[in-house]
């Protein structure tokens, strides 16, 4: 009886190492299998990276896939770059772009002409220009020199520039214009933006900015230390209710009304 008990104890003592060895062998086999599968998958992708995905005759191939889960490396080249001019033509054909152009031509530009701030020969800087609606609309009505800037460039109408540090010389423009209310409300330093606008516009030139109706007019006017506000008007621009502030850069007279 004593021998049987000792034999069972010895067998139990030897069982865990045997089980451990079996588990280690199983894990090793699974690891090797997974490594083999990963290697074969990589080789398959490398072999299918065909140069035919990027035709030499078309330098505008772009590695952007339209499928959420590309099946081959060729899926990454399934769409071509749209040239800026073609992209602009597509935007111009959209109803929203046309509505915006009509709103600017009928609501924003005529008062500026009446104040003598906008003419065919005017040099105009458009702040927060986005895709270039205002730049395109200005050129469409005959203003030959219109420049658009934004934090993100959008060629061919808009170039990248920081409105807090404009890359233009003093007095380079006859008019600083913005139809986007975020030019003021979204600026990190609105006072700095206003100061840069006044620096970039010539003496006697104009500043015309749209801003949200929730913002007090006096607060916006107070940003422009070297200009005389000549007009503040409620307008509807492409369905949005906005206020327009128009000012003349004139360091000799800084009265607001």
From TrEMBL:
CDD domains attached to this UniProt entry: AdoMet_MTases
Domain of life per record: Eukaryota
Gene3D superfamilies (alphabetical): Vaccinia Virus protein VP39
PANTHER family documented for this protein: F21J9.14, OS05G0500700 PROTEIN
Protein name: Methyltransferase type 11 domain-containing protein
